[in-house]
Amino acid sequence: MSALLPVRLAIDAMGGDHGPAITLPACRRFLDQHPEAELLLVGRADALAEAAGWPRTRIVVATEVVTMDDAVEIALRRKKDSSMRVALGLLKAGEGGRALADVCVSAGNTGALMAVARYLLKTVEGIDRPAIATVMPNQRDGYTTVLDLGANVDCTAEHLLQFALMGSALVAAVDGKNEPSVGLLNIGEEAIKGSEVIKQAGELLRAAGEAGRLNFHGNVEGNDIFKGTTDIVVCDGFVGNVALKTAEGLAAMLSNFIKQEFTRTPYARLAALVALPVLKHFKARVDHRRYNGAALLGLRGLVFKSHGSADAFAFEQALIRAHDAARRGLMQRVHDRLQAPTCADEPTPAAA
Amino acid sequence: MSALLPVRLAIDAMGGDHGPAITLPACRRFLDQHPEAELLLVGRADALAEAAGWPRTRIVVATEVVTMDDAVEIALRRKKDSSMRVALGLLKAGEGGRALADVCVSAGNTGALMAVARYLLKTVEGIDRPAIATVMPNQRDGYTTVLDLGANVDCTAEHLLQFALMGSALVAAVDGKNEPSVGLLNIGEEAIKGSEVIKQAGELLRAAGEAGRLNFHGNVEGNDIFKGTTDIVVCDGFVGNVALKTAEGLAAMLSNFIKQEFTRTPYARLAALVALPVLKHFKARVDHRRYNGAALLGLRGLVFKSHGSADAFAFEQALIRAHDAARRGLMQRVHDRLQAPTCADEPTPAAA
C-alpha cells in the first residue's frame, strides 16, 4: 500500500440544523482518535471559542452562516463570508501550489453546498457534472455505495459512465478495494431492459469494463442495493434520490410500527423490556448515522456532505469518511480513473 | 352509492410459481366469502378436477401454461391455448355485447400478461400505454397506490397525467374515495424541481386539478409513499419499479436482521419467545401479502396481477381487490375520468 498522507480537514462548523453544538463535540472526538489529523474550524469566533486551546486545530473566522432554508442564490451571491464558503475556499490551491486544506466537510444545505463548491472549485477535466455518492447498509454487513443521489436529473449515458468511474475511485480510496464491482440500476437484469439512456449506458459500462477501466457486473435492480450484489450502484440523480428517500420512508415507518407494537399493551411493554438488548443490537446494526457522509465527486477538491440533522456521532462518521478518502488520495484516484484508457491500478503493457 | 354489480371473475388457475396448489384453495375461500360472485376457472382439466362440484363455478379448459420464464413472444405467438390467454379472452365482449367475465386475475409472468392482455383487449380510447398500479402500506395504517410500476419507461408528461386519472378511478372504485389525492413523485416539493418531463407533468396535473378532473396535491418525495401523504403517487415505470424493488429489498434485509438478532444468543432466543406475540402483530401489520393484486389499467377489460410467488392468502387478496374493482364499475370510472373535461363524480353545469 502506498504511503498514507497526513490530512488537514476544513470544517464548516456552523452548518447543519445544530451547528457548533454538534460539530464541535464531533471534531473533538475525531481529533483524539486521529493523532495525525489537523483541523481548520470555520465559523463565528464567539461560537467556536471553546476550541481555542485544542491541539492541531486552527480557527478560521467567517462572519456569516448559510441556513438550511437559504436559497442557492443567497449562498452564492450574498453571503460571501459564510462558514460554508470560507471552508470550501480553503481547498483552493494557494500561491505555493498546495491548498490550506485537503478535504472539506459541511452539514449545510445540499443545494447551496453543491453550487458554492462548483463555483469556487470548478469540476475536474472530463466531468460535466459533479455527483453525490452515499452509502447504504447491505445484507453482507457491509454497505453499498450509490450515486448519483439527486445532483443530476436528466443524465446521459456518458454521465452515468463518469459516475461509475468516480464511484470506483471513491470505494477504492475509502474501503481499500482495488476493483470494486459496479452495477447499473435498471428494472431487470437483462441487457435489453430499461430506457434508451440506460441501454446506452450499459454498453458504455461494458466497454469500459472490457478496457479494464472498471469492474462492471451488469444491470442490478432496486433490491440489489440492500443485497449488496455490487459494491457500487450507478443511477441518475432522480432515480437515486427516489430510491434513497423511499428507503428512508420505509425505515421510518417500520421503526414507528415497532415502537407502537412494543407499547400497545402492558404485556407488550414487558416484552419490550426483555427484548431491549436484542432490539438495541438490531438498531445499532441498521443505524443510519453510521453511514453519514456523502461525497461530492468530480470537483477540483474533496467535499463531504453530512446530513443536516446529524448528531455528534453521525457528524464524526462523516469526518472519518472524509479523512480516509483524503488520506488515500481520492482526488488523484478520480483523476487517474477518468484519464486512463485502462485500469489505473493495474497498468498493462498495452496501456497508452 | 350506486348499485353494486354481480361479478364474474376469470381466473388463470395455472399461473404463478405454484399454480392450482395455491389458486384453488384461494378461490374456494373467496367463493365462501362472496356469495354473489361467480368464477370461471381456466386451466388443464386434470389440474382443476377438484373444483368440479363447486358452487357458482365453471371450469374452462385450456391445454397450455405460460411459465414464469417464458418469453413474451412464446406467450403471444406460440401458446395460443394457454390458461392466461384463454382467461383474458373471456373479457372480450361476445356476440350479445357482454363479455363472459368482468375481470381476470393471473399470477403469471408480468411481461407476458401485459403483452397478451394488450394484444387481445387493446387499450381504451385516449390511452397510449396501460399502466400497472400497486399498493404499499403507509403510516396511516392505510395504503398508498403507486403507478406506474414498470410497464412504461421513458414516459411523457401526458402519460403521467393519464396514470393520475386512471389511478384516481382505481382508488375511487376499490376504496370508495370519490376524490383521492394525487402526488407527483419528484426529488423535492418545490414546483421548480425535477426533470423537464416532471415539470411539464406538474403543469398538466395542476391544470387537470383546476379543471376538477382530479385532486392534485403537488409534488411528493419517495418517503411520502410510506407517510401516506397522498392516496396516489404517480411516476414513470422506471422510477416506480426502482422504488418498489428498493422497498422490497430493504424490508427483506431488515426482516433477516431481526431474525438473526433474535436467534444470536440463548438470551435472544428467550427474548424472542417472550416477544413473539408482539412480533407477530408487527409482522401481520406489514404483511405484504395483504397488498397483493396489482391493477393493469388502460385496457378494454379489467385485469389484476398477483405476485408470482403468492400463497393462497395472498392470491385471495388479489381476487378480493379484483372483485371490488369490478363490482364498483372501475372500467366505467376509468372511461369517465379520461373523457370528462371536469370531474366525473361531480358534474358541473359547465360540463360539456
Distance between the termini of chain A: 24 Å
Q: Reading side by side through the largest sheet of chain A, how are the strands ordered?
A: 3-2-1-4-11-10-5-6-9-7-8
Q: According to CATH, what is the class of the largest domain in chain A?
A: Alpha Beta
Radius of gyration of chain A: 21 Å
Total helices of chain A: the number is: 11
- Provide mean pLDDT of chain A, rounded: 90
CATH architecture of the largest domain in chain A: 3-Layer(aba) Sandwich
| Basic shape of chain A | globular
Q: Tell me the domain tally of chain A.
A: 2
Largest sheet of chain A: 11 strands, mixed
Question: Which protein chains are joined by the largest interface, and how many residues does each one contribute?
Answer: A-B, 57 and 57 residues
User: How much helical structure, as a percent, in the residues of chain A?
Assistant: 40-55%
What is the β-strand count of chain A? Answer: 11
Strand content of chain A: 15-25%
Poorly predicted spans of chain A = 342-352
Which structural category fits the helices and strands of chain A? alpha/beta
